[in-house]
């Protein structure tokens, strides 16, 4: 399609403006993080003498090493278990005649819309009576539960399209249901469950409300939960705050940029199902 | 038409055939209907953790909403008083109203801008330019909302980028501390929502446009449709499903928003940016008014369901 120059130019201008809207706030964070501490920075101006050591200062001030370790522990506690549970349930709901299967599925579907606010109050007292308040398990267990509806929905949607012929062939060859699942359907579903793993990672890493309420010691929270406390403590030191925010944004951003293509493709496939 | 003999023949054949099909499928359904109790074991772990840590607390919230309880002492029966104050307490009313205002920013604007962005990206030759725009728009969706809140608090501050930009374009007189301004705090928070949601909507709509049958565009062009007519006659109807997904996702985000507002304004100034999520948190964990917090939380849940479920019907009709 050949369009007049003026149309092409205005199209490019609008697109550049939209792209800038997306990234300029983050660039402003970066340029501010690099200004000397104690100075009064401008919104967006590249500093003449970039203070890269601000990142080290923020790292130490917020005790990010402990926070990173804590986030990793929480993620490692949440993601593999959630994936396994969601894959098992999704597979069974798609392939077997589970008694009450459709009722169970609808129960999970309701969970897709439930806001975490609707359960956070009783959850606090439930976790307290289990003696878990303040420990990382206080976040891990409810987070697994909150991630379950989407995972079951996602894996069931995927396994509903699995080839019946493969299952039949495996059964004829004498494979048990478990073997058919682990040796045939699970490997074939790698794109689906790895995309789910990325979504689970981001959801856990970015989780704010649960750690805020259930873990009072900020160094035991996730990165996002810890940042909230950091903001309260260093709200006046804008350079440290911006550097700290960028440190926390970093891992999410890196994971997204690495898996960008498969992630977006999988997200769209799941969203339209 | 059925009165003609040939057709009657044909229709009997069809009904015979479908009748037999029905018998076959009924048989297989009976065979498959036999409850497979061992399959329940596969579902049980997911169901158990979900029931114990989502469904059970949800029911407890319903129970709490009929009591007055400070979390320590004895809970006393409150009847419907916590529910009544949802509709009489000006603070709570404002929180609910603000959530609806946020829908404009989280849902309406991102879908509108997303349609424009997606249409433009599709017209650009495939290459780095379109990809970069897409990724740049999607980045805000993946970073922690807390970080988004902190970033924008800085952008909106007295010396932040927003005021700097207004100075550049000669609107220096309009500068202010946006998040502390009674009139502009809520729209300012809303713009953060646009920033977060725009990428998701753009990418989803973009992929939807890729699925529309190109022959529809050719037909429209043969009928003499301009690009605007083409957009309304072909593109928009073809995107029905994607738009419903965008509306669902962003509306839930708007109604249940918490992170961004807790970090950037905590509901202030006054109650100008108070939303149900932040109000629940404050009532439950700062004011120790658990019954009121639970009534608001359950009301919020019902509100989300009442809005989202009817919208899903639009998805199926095509």
Characterization of the model:
The complex is a heterodimer of chains A (273) and B (318). Chain A has 273 residues and is mainly alpha-helical. Chain A has helices spanning 5-33, 53-61, 64-95, 101-111, 117-129, 137-160, 164-172, 177-188, 190-205, 209-214, 223-234, 238-272. The radius of gyration of chain A is 23 Å and the shape is globular. The relative contact order of chain A is 0.13. Chain B has helices at 5-33, 40-64, 81-88, 90-123, 128-142, 145-155, 161-168, 185-211, 214-222, 227-238, 240-255, 259-264, 276-285, 290-316, and strands at 67-68, 76-77. Chain B has a two-stranded antiparallel sheet. In chain B, helix 9 runs antiparallel to helix 10 (227-238) and helix 13 packs antiparallel against helix 14. Chain B starts with a helix and ends with a helix. The chains are: A mainly alpha (273), B mainly alpha (318). Chains A and B meet through helix 1, helix 3, helix 4, helix 5 and helix 6 of A and helix 2, helix 4, helix 5, helix 6 and helix 7 of B.
Q: Short summary of the structure?
A:
The complex is a heterodimer of chains A (273) and B (318). Chain A is mainly alpha-helical and 273 residues long. Chain A has twelve helices and no strands.
Main features:
heterodimer; A: 273 residues; mainly alpha; 12 helices; 76% helix; 0% strand; B: 318 residues; two-stranded antiparallel ribbon; 14 helices; 75% helix; globular; disordered N terminus
